[in-house]
Write a structure and sequence with these properties.
Structural class: mainly alpha
Number of strands: 2
Shape: elongated
């Protein structure tokens, strides 16, 4: 299997690609094996999934990271903002 590069980052098989991530970085990547453990998608279907969802994945993880940092600052009394609300589903959101 050889996965073609996606728009946001390079997806490769068995670590053939190298992506250097700075030590002070919060990051997450998901390989095909994480999301399709039964290997039911073809390479073309996996690429179609990447093409359709890569941008959204980046946007949603960036937004979640910002919310997590905001909540961390509130919980640790860092800065001036100390308003925290629940979204009713177990997630705390900006107030």
């Amino acid at each position: 299997m050889d996965y073609r590069p996606s728009r946001l980052f390079r997806i490769t098989n068995k670590g053939n690609g190298i992506m250097k991530i700075p030590e002070n970085t919060l990051w997450q990547y998901l390989e095909k094996e994480h999301l399709d453990p039964d290997n039911k998608l073809t390479d073309d279907q996996w690429q179609a999934f990447l093409d359709e969802h890569s941008d959204e994945f980046g946007e949603r993880t960036a937004s979640m990271g910002k919310d997590m940092m905001h909540n961390f600052k509130i919980e640790n009394k860092i800065g001036d903002d100390n308003v925290l609300e629940s979204d009713g589903m177990g997630f705390e959101v900006r107030g």
